[in-house]
């Protein structure tokens, strides 16, 4: 008899992605098997890891729950669980609106999921348990990582900022830092398993140390990562300009395995709007940081988040954002039309901008940034780059007979498939021949292939998955570096 199956559906920021890997690990530790890809709710346990950022986040959740209700009726013993930020916020209403839900848990007690599922099964009633403070760092829980060669490492949870557009600090609590020794021990263990790239993760990652009273703790952590043998690439997300100090820039520039890539949320280029957002910097300070980063790392790729149409934004305010974008010359920008986040101060501010005005400004900003991204990518043509091979990042790779990988600065590169075997996690050297706004091409022959322990780890994982008994029906894991940017929700998720 095959084990019970599970499916985890993730919405929101990279913190949710990290949490979902832990939820999967917890369920597998409890004896569940991952449902095949495309199961679409056809599993014994379906878990929704939710986000509360978008205005229609609850409508999306309840719509999906509604579609599962008849499936649950036809499948005896099926259980549905809802966790994450929306569960933390709407703890009392989820079971009322969707009484077929079995478990509701919050952002602070994801480790309780297997116990709550079993309790709901035995007692035959919904279990709602929301902790008000963190019970365990996500990284200390069992995991089922989506990538064999790249991993998230949580260094802090919570956020001490009070940005008026963001509800996440209210749901994930005040910042709590993890012990440096625990972080480094986890990274060393991951490297021992074959991981060669890690992304340090926090709601406000470079504020690390505020909880332990050391303002240089984050730069020290970056330098310590540089001493871990076998760790080839270190990234982090997302920092806040307020805490981006010169010692962090120096650590990035002087630590070889810290990648020349920075995602620095700007949100707006207008000083009055930044003040209304309660962002503790102004345009000059932000552009000054960018200038210092480029002086220390000329090849660094810098990306950002921008909100268009924040309450009270005038045409002059918007033009200041356009000016800042032209000055900063971001490699790419995640641009968002402001939408009300229920429970945030901005949701009730005067001066809400008409939808058609927001749309027009958004389109103008996207057009300018698209042009800049293309111009910046064209500067890469002719360069020789080492790429870490990825899987699943080139949607047309099969048709074009190419593979895809990430450059040190995290640019996506599609390259000609070499004659020798190349696995995700291996490193190839290529010459860039063409640039598009959102990717690069290396159309010539691969100059060098370097097999890695990370590639070995990918091969081992896939060999073991293929050898599983047919009755278990495990889907092959998706492999590739953790998404470095909060593409789904970006600026609103409190990770900046």
Automatic annotation (TrEMBL):
It comes from the Bacteria. Residues 145-376 form the Radical SAM core domain. It comes from Streptomyces atriruber. It catalyses: N(6)-dimethylallyladenosine(37) in tRNA + (sulfur carrier)-SH + AH2 + 2 S-adenosyl-L-methionine = 2-methylsulfanyl-N(6)-dimethylallyladenosine(37) in tRNA + (sulfur carrier)-H + 5'-deoxyadenosine + L-methionine + A + S-adenosyl-L-homocysteine + 2 H(+). This is tRNA-2-methylthio-N(6)-dimethylallyladenosine synthase. It is found in: Cytoplasm. Keywords: 4Fe-4S, Cytoplasm, Iron, Iron-sulfur, Metal-binding, S-adenosyl-L-methionine, Transferase, tRNA processing. Residues 4-122 form the MTTase N-terminal domain. Catalyzes the methylthiolation of N6-(dimethylallyl)adenosine (i(6)A), leading to the formation of 2-methylthio-N6-(dimethylallyl)adenosine (ms(2)i(6)A) at position 37 in tRNAs that read codons beginning with uridine.
């Amino acid at each position: 008899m095959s084990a019970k199956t599970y499916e985890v559906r993730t919405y929101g920021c990279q913190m949710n992605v990290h949490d979902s890997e832990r939820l999967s690990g917890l369920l597998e530790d409890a004896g569940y098997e991952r449902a095949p890809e495309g199961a679409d709710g056809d599993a014994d346990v379906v878990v929704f890891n939710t986000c509360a950022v978008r205005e229609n986040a609850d409508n999306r959740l309840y719509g999906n729950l509604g579609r599962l209700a008849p499936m649950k009726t036809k499948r005896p013993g099926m259980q549905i669980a809802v966790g994450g930020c929306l569960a933390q916020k709407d703890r009392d209403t989820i079971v009322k609106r969707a009484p077929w839900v079995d478990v509701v848990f919050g952002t602070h007690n994801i480790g309780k999921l297997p116990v709550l599922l079993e309790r709901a099964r035995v007692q035959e009633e919904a279990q709602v348990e929301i902790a008000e403070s963190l019970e365990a760092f996500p990284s200390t829980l069992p995991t089922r990582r989506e990538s064999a060669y790249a991993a998230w490492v949580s260094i802090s949870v919570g956020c001490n900022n009070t940005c008026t557009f963001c509800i996440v600090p209210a749901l994930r609590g005040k910042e709590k830092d993890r012990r440096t020794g625990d972080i480094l021990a986890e990274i060393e263990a991951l490297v021992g398993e074959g991981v060669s790239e890690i992304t340090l993760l926090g709601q406000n990652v470079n504020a690390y140390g505020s909880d332990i009273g050391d303002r240089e703790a984050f730069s020290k952590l970056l330098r310590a990562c540089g001493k871990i043998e076998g760790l080839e690439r270190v990234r982090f997300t997302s920092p806040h300009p307020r805490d981006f100090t010169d010692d962090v820039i120096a650590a990035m520039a002087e630590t070889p395995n810290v990648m020349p890539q920075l995602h620095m949320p700007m949100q707006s280029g207008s000083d009055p709007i930044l003040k209304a957002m309660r962002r503790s910097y102004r345009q000059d300070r932000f552009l000054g940081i960018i200038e210092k980063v480029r002086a220390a790392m000329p090849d660094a790729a810098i990306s950002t988040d921008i909100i268009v149409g924040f309450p009270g934004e005038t045409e002059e305010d918007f033009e200041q954002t356009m000016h800042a974008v032209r000055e900063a010359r971001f490699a790419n920008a995640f641009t968002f039309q402001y939408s009300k986040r229920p429970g945030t101060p901005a949701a009730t501010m005067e001066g809400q901008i008409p939808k058609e005005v927001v749309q027009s400004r958004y389109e103008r900003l996207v057009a300018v940034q698209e042009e800049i991204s293309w111009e910046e990518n064209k500067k890469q043509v002719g360069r020789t780059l080492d790429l870490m091979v990825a899987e699943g990042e080139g949607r047309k790779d099969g048709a074009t007979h190419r593979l895809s990988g990430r450059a040190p600065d995290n640019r996506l590169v599609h390259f000609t498939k070499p004659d020798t075997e190349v696995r995700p996690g291996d490193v190839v050297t290529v010459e860039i021949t063409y640039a598009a706004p959102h990717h690069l091409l290396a159309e010539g022959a691969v100059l060098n292939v370097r097999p890695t322990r990370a590639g070995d780890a990918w091969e081992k994982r896939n060999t073991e998955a293929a050898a599983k008994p047919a009755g278990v029906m495990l889907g092959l894991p998706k492999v590739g570096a953790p998404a470095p940017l909060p593409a789904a929700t970006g600026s609103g998720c409190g990770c900046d």
